[in-house]
C-alpha cells in the first residue's frame, strides 16, 4: 500500500509555500497555482503527491501581491482569474480582480482585463453543465452594506457574458452568520465586528451541490473551511441553473461545524480547491496550513499546500484533514495511457488506419496521432461494461470538416458503438453498428468549436447507457442495445487527429433513476420497486445478494434509516465460506463485525449524528478497509476466493450504490495497464 505524508512534497526536497492553492487537471497532469508576492507560482504533478516547481506563471510590472488564482481551460486557452494591487501598496483593500490568458497551463500568462476598480478577490469560475454558461463566484466587501449587523467580506455569484466579462448582476450566496467567521472585533470602534467569508469552491455529488468557503482571518490560527449546500434539482425534477441555486450552510446558518479546522499539528487551515484523483472518481481537497509548532511570523510566508481525501456522505462532506500522518495515495485508474513511449503498448490494437505516438517535451504532454484516411480505430484489450473515461482530442480538419472521438463499445468493425465529434455539422453523434449496419441513435448540437484546440471528451458507460460530456458540458445520453463487457477504442474518420492522456476506471454509480440497473448486480430476496431509491418501509427485511465481484473491489452504499426500528446491513466477503465483514447501521449508531469460522469479533462501533450515511468497503491486496461517516477501520485482508456483497434493509432506504474495480499502482507519468483503488 503506497502512502504519502503532508505537506506536499517536491521532487527536489525543498519545502515551498503555496498559499491559496488552486489545482487544475489537464491532459493527465495536475497544475497548482498559488498566491505570491511577486507573481502567481505554478507547480506540476502526475499524481497530486509529488510536485515539481515551474516558477512564476504570471508576473506584471508595477503590480504585486497576487492573490488566490483560479485557472480554467476554455476556448483553446488557459484563463487565469486572480487579484493584485499596485506595487509598493500595503493596503489589501486595493486588491482587484483581473484576468490573464496563456496558450500553455504553465504560462507565461498575459493580463487581459480588470473586472472591478474596488476590492474584489478569490474568484472561482465554473461551467454550468446544462446550459454551458460560465459563472464566477468571488468575494467583495459591499454585499452586506455598512448598515448590516454582520458587516464584512461575502461570496457572490454572477454570470459571465464572455470569458473576460461579467453580466453585472451579482447575487450574494454565502453571507456571514457565525461568530467564528469574525476577522476583527470592534473594527470601527463602535462595537461592530468585521466578518470574512471568502475562497469559494463549487462542485457537485449526485443531486447535491457544495460550496466550500473559508472564514475568520487568514493570518490567524483559527482560519477554517466550512461549506454550504444546495439541491441541484427543482421540485419538478428539472436541473436548477448554478446561478439560481439556494444555498444554506452546513448544518445550518447559525451552527458552527467546520469541515477543516486547526488541530495539534496544523493551524491556519483554509482556502481550498477540490479536484478529482487520477481515477476520475474520488474528490481530494487541496488547502493550505501552517505547522502548529512554528511561531507565527507575519513577515514570513508559512502557508504550505496539503492534500486530503474528501468524502461525500449523503448530503454532507467528511474529511480527515488536516492530516500529518501517512495517508493512502490518491487512487489511480484502471487504464492510463499518455502515449509517451516510442511505440504503442501491446495492450493497444490498431484495427484500421495508422497511429503513431508523438514524443513531446515537458511543456507539451505526449499524444498519439492517427493519419488522415477513410477511417482509423485504435482499441484497448481490456473488456469493460461500466466505466468513466476521458481523453483529450483535437483534429486537423479537411475541406469537409473533421470527425473524431471514441468507440465506447467495440467488438468488431461490424459490431460497435461510436461517439464522434463532427466539426462540419457542429454536432456530436452516437452511432451503433450491428452486423455492419449503422444506425444513428443520438445527436446533440455543439457550441462554437475549434477542432484544432484540445477538447476534453468524457464518456461514461452504465451497461447499455452512454453519457457524453465535452469540456464539462453535458451533451447527451444514448441508449444502446448492448450491456455486456466490450473493448473501448479511439476513432477518427476522414481527418488526422491526436489523442492524449486516455484514462479509464471501471466504475458503476447507481443513483436516482440509474438504480433500475440493480438487477444487473444483485438478486433480491423478494419483489421490490425502485423509484429514485430502494425503499423498505416495513419491518420485514429485504436482502440483496450480489454476483461475484472482482478481487480488488470498492463498494459504497448510501443508506438512510427511516424508522426507529430501521437498520441497514452491508456485508462483504466470501459468503459461502462464512468469512466476511459486516457493517450495521441503525438509528444513531453503527457497528462493524468480522465473522470467521463460526465466531464473531466486533471491530468498531460508535455514534452517527445523521440518519443518512455512506458505508464504504474496499478489498485490495493485503488490506481490507471500512469507513462509515468519519470513522475508518483497516485490517489484514482475509483470503476470499469468492467475493460477494450482501445488503439487508428494514425500515431504511438505499439511495445509491457504487462499485469500483482496479488493481496495482496509480499513474506516474507513463502507461499503466493496472492501477489502484482506495476506500
Automatic annotation (TrEMBL):
Pathway recorded for this protein: Glycan metabolism; L-arabinan degradation
Any single GO BP term: carbohydrate metabolic process
Site (Important for catalytic activity, responsible for pKa modulation of the active site Glu and correct orientation of both the proton donor and substrate): 122
Residue span of region Disordered: 660-679
InterPro entries according to UniProt: GH43_arabinanases, Glyco_hydro_43, Glyco_hydro_beta-prop_sf
Pfam families, alphabetized: Glyco_hydro_43
GO molecular function, one term: hydrolase activity, hydrolyzing O-glycosyl compounds
Entry keyword annotation includes DNA-binding: no
Chain intervals with Basic residues compositional bias: 669-679
Domain of life of the organism encoding this protein: Bacteria
Keywords associated with the record: Glycosidase, Hydrolase
Family classification: Belongs to the glycosyl hydrolase 43 family.
Name of protein: Glycosyl hydrolase family 43
Organism (species): Xylanimonas ulmi
Lineage: Bacteria, Bacillati, Actinomycetota, Actinomycetes, Micrococcales
Amino acid at each position: 500500500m503506497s502512502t504519502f505524508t503532508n505537506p506536499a512534497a517536491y521532487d527536489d526536497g525543498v519545502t515551498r509555500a503555496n498559499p491559496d492553492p488552486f489545482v487544475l487537471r489537464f491532459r493527465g497532469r495536475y497544475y497548482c497555482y498559488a498566491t505570491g508576492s511577486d507573481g502567481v507560482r505554478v507547480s506540476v504533478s502526475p499524481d497530486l503527491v509529488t510536485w515539481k516547481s515551474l516558477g512564476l506563471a504570471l508576473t506584471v510590472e508595477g503590480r504585486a501581491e497576487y492573490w488566490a488564482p483560479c485557472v480554467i481551460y476554455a476556448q483553446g486557452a488557459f484563463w487565469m482569474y486572480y487579484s493584485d494591487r499596485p506595487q509598493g501598496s500595503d493596503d489589501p483593500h486595493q486588491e482587484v480582480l483581473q484576468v490573464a490568458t496563456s496558450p500553455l497551463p504553465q504560462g507565461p500568462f498575459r493580463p487581459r482585463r480588470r473586472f472591478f476598480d474596488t476590492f474584489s478577490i478569490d474568484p472561482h469560475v465554473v461551467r454550468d453543465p446544462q446550459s454551458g454558461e460560465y459563472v464566477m463566484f468571488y468575494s467583495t466587501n459591499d454585499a452586506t452594506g455598512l448598515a448590516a449587523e454582520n458587516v464584512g467580506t461575502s461570496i457572490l455569484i454572477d454570470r459571465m457574458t464572455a470569458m473576460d466579462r461579467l453580466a453585472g448582476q451579482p447575487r450574494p450566496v454565502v453571507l456571514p452568520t457565525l461568530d467564528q467567521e469574525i476577522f476583527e472585533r470592534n473594527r470601527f470602534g463602535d462595537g461592530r465586528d468585521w466578518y470574512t467569508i471568502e475562497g469559494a469552491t463549487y462542485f457537485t455529488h449526485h443531486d447535491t451541490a457544495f460550496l466550500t468557503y473559508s472564514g475568520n482571518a487568514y493570518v490567524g490560527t483559527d482560519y477554517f473551511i466550512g461549506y454550504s449546500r444546495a439541491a441541484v434539482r427543482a421540485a419538478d425534477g428539472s436541473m436548477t441553473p448554478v446561478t439560481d441555486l439556494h444555498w444554506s450552510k452546513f448544518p445550518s446558518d447559525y451552527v458552527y461545524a467546520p469541515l477543516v479546522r486547526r488541530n495539534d499539528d496544523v493551524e491556519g487551515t483554509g482556502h481550498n480547491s477540490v479536484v478529482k484523483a487520477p481515477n476520475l472518481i474520488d474528490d481530494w481537497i487541496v488547502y493550505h496550513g501552517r505547522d502548529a509548532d512554528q511561531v507565527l511570523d507575519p513577515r514570513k510566508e508559512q502557508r504550505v499546500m496539503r492534500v486530503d481525501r474528501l468524502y461525500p456522505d449523503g448530503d454532507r462532506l467528511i474529511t480527515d484533514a488536516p492530516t500529518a500522518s501517512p495517508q493512502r495515495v490518491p487512487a489511480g485508474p484502471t487504464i492510463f495511457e499518455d502515449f509517451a513511449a516510442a511505440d504503442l503498448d501491446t495492450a493497444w490494437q490498431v484495427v484500421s488506419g495508422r497511429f503513431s505516438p508523438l514524443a513531446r517535451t515537458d511543456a507539451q504532454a505526449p499524444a498519439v496521432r492517427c493519419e488522415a484516411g477513410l477511417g482509423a480505430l485504435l482499441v484497448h484489450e481490456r473488456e469493460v461494461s461500466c466505466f468513466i473515461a476521458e481523453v483529450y482530442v483535437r483534429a486537423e480538419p479537411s475541406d469537409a470538416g473533421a470527425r473524431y472521438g471514441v468507440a465506447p463499445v467495440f467488438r468488431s468493425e461490424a459490431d460497435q458503438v461510436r461517439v464522434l465529434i463532427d466539426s462540419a455539422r457542429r454536432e456530436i453523434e452516437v452511432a451503433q453498428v450491428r452486423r455492419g449496419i449503422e444506425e444513428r441513435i443520438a445527436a446533440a448540437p455543439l457550441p462554437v468549436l475549434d477542432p484544432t484546440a484540445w477538447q476534453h471528451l468524457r464518456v461514461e458507460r452504465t451497461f447499455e447507457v452512454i453519457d457524453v460530456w465535452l469540456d464539462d458540458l453535458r451533451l447527451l445520453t444514448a441508449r444502446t442495445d448492448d450491456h455486456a463487457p466490450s473493448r473501448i477504442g479511439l476513432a477518427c474518420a476522414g481527418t488526422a487527429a491526436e489523442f492524449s492522456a486516455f484514462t479509464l476506471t471501471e466504475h458503476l454509480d447507481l443513483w436516482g433513476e440509474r438504480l433500475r440497473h440493480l438487477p444487473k448486480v444483485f438478486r433480491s430476496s423478494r419483489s421490490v420497486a425502485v423509484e429514485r431509491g430502494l425503499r423498505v418501509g416495513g419491518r420485514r427485511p429485504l436482502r440483496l445478494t450480489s454476483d461475484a465481484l472482482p478481487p480488488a473491489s470498492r463498494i459504497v452504499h448510501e443508506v438512510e434509516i427511516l424508522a426507529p426500528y430501521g437498520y441497514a446491513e452491508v456485508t462483504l466477503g466470501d459468503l459461502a465460506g462464512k468469512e466476511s465483514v459486516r457493517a450495521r447501521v441503525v438509528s444513531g449508531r453503527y457497528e462493524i463485525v468480522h465473522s470467521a469460522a463460526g465466531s464473531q469479533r466486533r471491530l468498531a462501533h460508535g455514534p452517527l449524528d445523521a440518519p443518512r450515511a455512506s458505508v464504504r468497503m474496499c478489498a485490495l491486496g493485503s488490506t481490507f478497509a471500512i469507513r462509515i461517516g468519519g470513522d475508518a477501520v483497516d485490517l489484514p485482508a482475509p483470503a476470499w476466493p469468492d467475493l460477494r456483497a450482501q445488503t439487508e434493509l428494514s425500515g431504511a432506504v438505499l439511495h445509491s450504490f457504487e462499485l469500483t474495480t482496479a488493481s496495482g499502482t496509480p499513474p506516474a507519468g507513463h502507461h499503466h495497464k493496472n492501477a489502484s483503488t482506495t476506500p
